[in-house]
Amino acid sequence: MLRRVAPILLTLLVVVLGVTALAARPYAPSPRPSADFVVLVGVAGLRWDDVDPQRTPTLWRMAQEGSIGSLSVRSVHRPTCPLDGWLTLGAGSFAAWTGSRPDGLCPADEVTVERPDGIGAYLPEQDSVVLHNQDRLPWGTVPGALSESVRCSVAVGPGAAVAAARPFGRVDRYAPTLPEDPTELLGSCVLSIVDLGTVAGTDPAARAAAAREADTQLARVLAGRPPHSLVIVAGVADTERPSRLHVAIADGPGWENGWLTSPSTARQGYLQLVDLAPTALAALGRPMPDRAFLGRPAESVGGRPADLPAAIAEPADADREAAAQQEVAGGFFTVLAAVQVALAVAVLPLLRRARRHAGPHGPKPVSPRLVAIVEVLLVAAALAMPAALLAEAAPWWRYAHPAVSFAGLTGVLLAAATLLVRLVPGYRSTLGPLGAVAGLTTLAIGLDVITGARLQLNGVVGYSALEGGRYAGLGTVGLGVFVAAALLTAGWLAQRVPRGWRPVVMVAMGGIAVVVVGSPYLGADSIGAIALTAGVSVAAAISAGGWLTLTRLAWAAMAGLAVTVGFAVVDMGRLPAERGSLGRFLAALGDGTGGLTVQRSSTSNFETLVNSPLTVLALAGALLVWFALLRPWGGLMRLFGIYPAIRAAMAGTGVAVVIGGVLGGAALDVAGAAAALVVPMAALSALRVLDHAADRTRPAGDRPGDAGWPDGPVARHDGDGGPGAAGAAVDAGAAPAQGGPEAGAGHGRTVRSSAEVATG
């Protein structure tokens, strides 16, 4: 009876853990009106290294008194050109101006602004821009949504006209340049948008001159600002490749001496360009538009250093790190994929010759030294991503050659981690390297996530603030590696306990991993938590033995579906601005715009599948497993027969990473990251099992303490308690059990090889 209800109870436990992890959310107070007027000042291309107390004293003083942050200007295209940035600012969602962008370069900032009455203005291109964004782009953006949410708005300069134009092209009040005394103009409407030009190029003198000119005009804006007003200065766009992080400063009542942040980033000191429109409306106390913004209202939080140079140094350093990450990440994953493919090819002949024959004749065995070298290389390959993550603890991006600095630091950490695994007491056992690598990886990523995921942000194996997909929690690569490491650790632990307790160990360890991945306080990845729930259910179902049957797969599917439904119910009960991705998607299905979300996800999956080096890792790993490791000579089936908990962990990993990648719009990236850890460990473990396939072992009736049972780590009971279990658990580093048929006859039984035990 207990064995029948155990899968139900364990599934319910996983579901409860998953829903609990996803349902809890940090308290976020609703933004309150803080200003009677809002002035949005844009300077395309303005970065924190352009801000200086001598060149830009107004910006410096404003940063001293107000709140500062790093602004990600991600929009439709890369880079976000000035017209795209201004349009995104006024739309509160990803938007793009019409026209081509040859070779990713920004076109000339030419926009036609007509002034039929001398008060306002009209943009004749607005109709085509609106159609382009609503019909051809997948976000359903409404250009001019910000100006439509207020009764009256002011625009100064052509870029500001693009942001302030209503969907039909009308700009309420317009001035082509900033007046000497803008007091009357800025006080005529509750919302003013001001274009102070562009800071572009790589020439320091030219950038300094442009920043100085913008600073001079900003001084006039601050002198003429209306009373009780909020002024926001933002570097609203890139001007060239590569993309960069830009300046964001807010100065007004309630915005003093803090860091700018937003619920859309959940990261102190970071906000997005799409956050500026909802921030303006929230400050004015105006309702949000019917078509919800992608951004969320920003706020000021404490914790900023009292010393302004030290405070400004942080976002400036973050910009340098993000830029260096873009340069290094592609090369790192390309090299890693090439190395892992080369190792896969090198392992094939070793697998064919790894099995030692019991008789006097057979192929010459591979040199033990060569096998030991390959094993160390496999350990190093599996530890490459954790080592790259730990490298983010040192500021490698500050050196003249960031790629060389990162490679050197990662190499040192990789060598140290590999040596540590090599020196662990159980390294010579079959599962020793697997358990050590999985445990170290789980510990490294888990501790980083628990302490704020500082190594993930702008990390080579993390995520970039320039991409704008994620700013906090666990990234795509981190998810794949952590899921694989956590489940392999659970499998290694489960294999060391009696058979009946293995599902409990899998659920306990897997449940903790679900909480780490899904909690908004930690990993903040609801899709990843749902996928991991299904993976844990699969692993728990087959950890005690047996294969992945349709019934067990159905239990896993039910667990994932139950978590999804439970979280959806909780998420839909929240206010629209507080919902997660699942709640927003369900709301979009309700109002008929869910197709846009599906289209965005499909496009993201396809682009990632085609362009990511992790796709190569996933496919190469799958090919090695299917055409080599799972063959009769490959050793993986033998490993699975001897260690069912490891088989369960790997099966659960496969289910989790495929679901997480597809639903998260990451295609095979999650699977590729997991394969970088799982496949080398599977190959190493298979080599060791094959090396001892012909070892003679004591029959199952022998137990520690019986006469003739070898002392030490020669033979180990794996906890199954069934016939042949002791013989199936010979460790790879152990000598074969003494005695042959004669010894077996002394027990009145026939001695069986581990190969016979594994195959039944």
UniProtKB/TrEMBL annotation:
Keywords: Membrane, Transmembrane, Transmembrane helix. Residues 726-740 have a biased composition (Low complexity). It comes from Micromonospora sonchi. This is Uncharacterized protein. InterPro entries: Alkaline_phosphatase_core_sf. Residues 696-705 have a biased composition (Basic and acidic residues). Residues 696-760 are annotated as: Disordered. The lineage of its organism: Bacteria, Bacillati, Actinomycetota, Actinomycetes, Micromonosporales. The keyword Kinase does not apply.
